[in-house]
Input
Amino acid sequence: MTRSKSWIAAGSFAVCLLIPLVVRTDYNLQVLFRVFLFAALGLAWNLVGGYAGQLSLGHAAYFGAGAYAMALLPHFGVSLWLAPVLGIILAVAFAALIGGVSFRLRGPYFALATIAFAEVLRLLAKNLPSVTGGDVGIQVPSLFAHAINRSFYLAAVVLTAIAFGVTVWVSRSKFGYYLMAIREDEDTALSVGINTARTKLEALFLSAGITAMGGALYGSLFLFIVPDQVLSLDISNEIAIVAMLGGAGTALGPILGSIVLESASETFKNVFHEAHLLIYGLLLVVVVIFLPEGIVGTVNTWLARRRSALAAAPKQRAQRNSAS
Amino acid sequence: MDAFFSALQAILNGLLTGALYALVGMGMALIFGVMRIVNFAHGTFLMLGMYATYFIFEKTGLNPYFGFVFASAFLFCLGYLIYRGLIQHMPVHSDFMQILLTLGLALIFTDAIQLTFGADYHQLNLPLLAKNVHLGQHISLNAPWLVSFGLAVVLGSGMYWFVMHTRIGRAARAIAQNRYASPLMGINVHRVQAVSFGLGVAGAGIAGGLLLPVFYIYPTVGDQFTLKAFVMVVLGGMGSIQGAAVAGLVLGVVESLTSLYWGNEWALAVDFAIFLLVLSLRPAGIFGSQRV
Output
């Protein structure tokens, strides 16, 4: 990052930390919690879905792993703050299993395999009530005892900042370039000596870990989880949609996507009541038609085109470059 | 002996369900297998088929076994328009955007139905529902399932014939082989794709109409079928219409046997377990020859 960009990032982080001084109602803080939670989850998804181009639609598996670890482990005497850490380890173990099988597949096959894994986990959680509480659900202890909504909001902001930091680091590191090479052409990446299987798996580990922490926070704030919620396709879809809508493969995309999508979804609920899903669906369709590369991606393309149009002499060459 | 007959009964029931699954799967095989459009609204189209048939029955009293024809005609037009209005304008092979688009469409239709018909469960009252056909002493089959099965077999064969032997069907498969060479051979890509998409949607709609007499309907009833349809296409082998049909029958029988021995709640889990097993051992599908 250039120096000015670092300052902007640090300033935004500080502003986000100060927001609870202004926003005090529990409802608003919970909405903001959701915005930042999904920003973090979208950023996590983006490592695999955006940079590596592996369209995972089963991130609920890791989210659920974190949430269930948070719920179950304290019953066995695990301390409150160790539970999410073990949840992260559990999610990484799932990622090893899921990635091991699914990463041999490409395109839509990969997406379907990740869905199938998440669905198997959901059904196991539903059908094994002795372990997970089954369909009835299970109580989750709260990580914070005081100023609960404010603390969870701050935790979500910190998680987003961590996920953003990881994303910026990845996008500038050799590791990130490997991922992008895999996205552009996996066979070529293999042929120049990138261990694609291992690189994809490492990206998935990072992604799964952050997602599990998000799941633990989510369960811990709402104090109660059921399989059809934390392990649902809806969660997987929402995580992917936030990132794709904002701009897959960009660091700012998932954050913008979450701000737009979560606040729109909350507003629609209040304004349109029963029709809110219809309007939400319309929003998705409109985005696909008018912003096919997501918000950030489309703006970047537009800026690049403008810049190349402004450059007078090497005009044609610039256009050829931006087109290829 | 009882164990044998209960297993046989389960297998037969599974085949009856499986034929309807096959119709859903064949529609998806056309859309996802042949055209490579990742369609997460397939179950929603099935649900629309159910509600359209239900609506026709409520308004005119027309028996659903005839009404489904009009419902699927409506769905064909809907599919055609969705392709022409939306999918045609999207970048080719953009899985991300297709998924976003079809998820958006699914939300729109599901919520629209809920706003129109309410979230309640409905069921048709047909005199046929109570009738059973007995085969020997031990086996009995529910009459509406049998009628649906017969119609599904006829219509599924018709769909297979259409894709394999008509000009449009051949053109659709040619586009699947090479999207860039087919227009050079005089194929109007978008026209053929729009018709194929309409046909795939109509396939889901037909299955919905035929399921109506034996199912409760509610706005999200279709969701369970979307993933099953994907499973069938992959099991059958990408691009293979008959493979998806066989996979539908297999899935029906597997679910029925799982319900018999382990309980209903494990049926879906076994579906996905088989799916993952096939994907990891033989990703081209049971009947497919393509590499993935």
Observations:
- The longest helix of chain B spans residues 2-34.
- Residues 112 and 219 of chain B are 9 Å apart (CA to CA).
- Chain B has ten helices and two strands.
- Chain B touches chain A through 41 residues (CB under 8 Å).
